[in-house]
Amino acid sequence: MWHSIVNINEKSIFIDKINQIYSTIQQNKTKVNTNLNSNLVEGNLGIILFLTYYSIVFDNAESKRITINLIQNVIENIDSLKPDASLFTGLSGLGWVLQFLINIQYIEFNDSDLQEIDEIILRSIIDNLKFGNFDLISGGIGQILYLLERNPSRFDSHFFERVIKQINYLKLSNNGYSYWNNIEYWLEVQTEKANLGLAHGTISISYLLSKLYQYGYAPSICQRLIHESISFYKYCRKQDTLKSIFPTVYPFETSHENSRLAWCNGDLGIGISILQIGIRLKDELIQDFGNEILLSTTTRKNLKVNGVFDSSFCHGTSGIGHIYNKAYQYTKDVKYKEASKYWFTKTLELAKFEDGYAGYKTWFGTDNESWKNELGLLTGISGVGLSLISFVSDISPDWDKIFLLS
Fold first, then answer.
1. What pLDDT score was predicted for residue 275?
2. Which of 129, 152, 175, 255 lies 20 to 30 Å from 53, alpha-carbon distance?
3. CB 109, CB 95: distance < 8 Å
């Protein structure tokens, strides 16, 4: 059962910021309504998720009206997503959001339209897994999340068993541990390194295997691969853990190489994933390992040192605060509650731009236009708003399944 970790006296300042985010989206309704980009990174699908939860938590009829209009707009412009079938920039994302809203009984939708998407996604998953593109953002894992949201029972069980066998086939093993080299998602080329993070790395494959194990697909293979991958993470711990336990990739250049504090890469995403995997497998040793990793991050509070520059969910303060909130809900360890409050307070402090959306801008670290206004889910104010809503409300943040956090 999900409960807000802030008391009634603390909530008002965070609710004010949530309302500012909603007002900003309203003020930009012309831009939103004419935006043909319907993806989850910077497009309207992320805005739809924020508005959905805003309308539910605050019983706001106007927000629901805007949401329904946006959904119609996205469906009418579905061709803007083709031929991309990925979760965060393509058809899987559209299908996931629509099915999610159906599952929480927010909308009704003609299932035959989603069946057309099913066929495209099933073919694309097979193509992606042939050359090892498991990436959550752009590859097979994200697409499989769509199938799981649809309800896997509507698909042939042999399909998921085939996926598991392909994951097993592509693993790299040594001394009892297993991992997977990743595709550089922006180039779609195979690398000689294994990304360790949640957005693009081996731990996301382990997470998927734990979900498939939970559904009963090839459980013995899933369990073996999970244990082998957890052994890999134990092997990858750096000798110098002063800043981070894990580097960003394996093999790493030196024992001093550190990873950032974020959802996308580094110890935080790895730790929360391992904790969830342990809970699904009812394996206390795996849970303890996840907890050990997470607790080690709670003392990392310097933004610059830890590579935290903005409030975004992907690599900023709101994603960090939300993960600690999740860790507290799982464990009831007050260190996570304190850490979540710290990072959400930092989230408010980062709303410092006079020309920003609700005061926020996103850091992209490029020479040109390093700070940008973003409305979307992954790097924009919709993701910030959703995490703040979950911070102040007692409604379970099931939306975070899309980030491998439920």
1. 98
2. 152
3. no
Q: Which residue has the tokens 């889910």?
A: 377
Judged against a pLDDT cut of 80, whether residue 252 lies above it is answered with no
Residue with tokens 């073919």: 123
| pLDDT attached to residue 186 | 47
Residue 328 has φ and ψ, to the nearest 5°, of -65, -45
pLDDT category of residue 241 using cuts at 50, 70 and 90: confident
DSSP string, 93-149: HHHHHHHHHHHTTS----HHHHHHHHHHHHHHHHHHHHTT---TTTSHHHHHHHHHH
Q: How many CB atoms lie within 10 A of CB 370?
A: 12
**Distance between CA atoms of residues 338 and 58, nearest Å:** 25
Q: Give the pTM.
A: 0.95
Give me the residues paired with residue 172 across strands. Answer: 179
Structure tokens at 310: 């903005």
Neighbours of 196 (CB within 10 A): 26
pLDDT above 50 (res 376): yes
- The DSSP string of 52-74 is HHHHHHTT-HHHHHHHHHHHHHH
Report, as an integer, the average pLDDT of 332-355.
Answer: 98
Burial class, 294, CB count within 10 angstroms (exposed 0-12 / middle 13-18 / buried 19+): buried
Q: Is the pLDDT of residue 126 over 90?
A: yes
Residue with tokens 């009963």: 216
Structure tokens at 369: 């236009």
Whole-number Å distance between alpha carbons of 270 and 252: 17
Q: What tokens does 230 get?
A: 């957890």
DSSP state of 180: -
What sign for the dihedral angle of Cα 35, 37, 41, 47?
A: positive
Cβ-contact 200, 185 below 8 angstroms: yes
How many CA atoms does the CB half-sphere of 88 hold within 13 Å? 22
DSSP per position, 333-385: -HHHHHHHHHHHHHHHHT---TTSBTTB-EE---SS--EE---SSSSSHHHHH
Round to whole Å and give the CA distance between 17 and 389.
10
Residues forming a β-bridge with 360: 357
Distance set, CA 283 to CA 176, 198, 202, 229, 287 (Å): 18, 20, 19, 14, 6
Q: What is the residue type of 261?
A: L
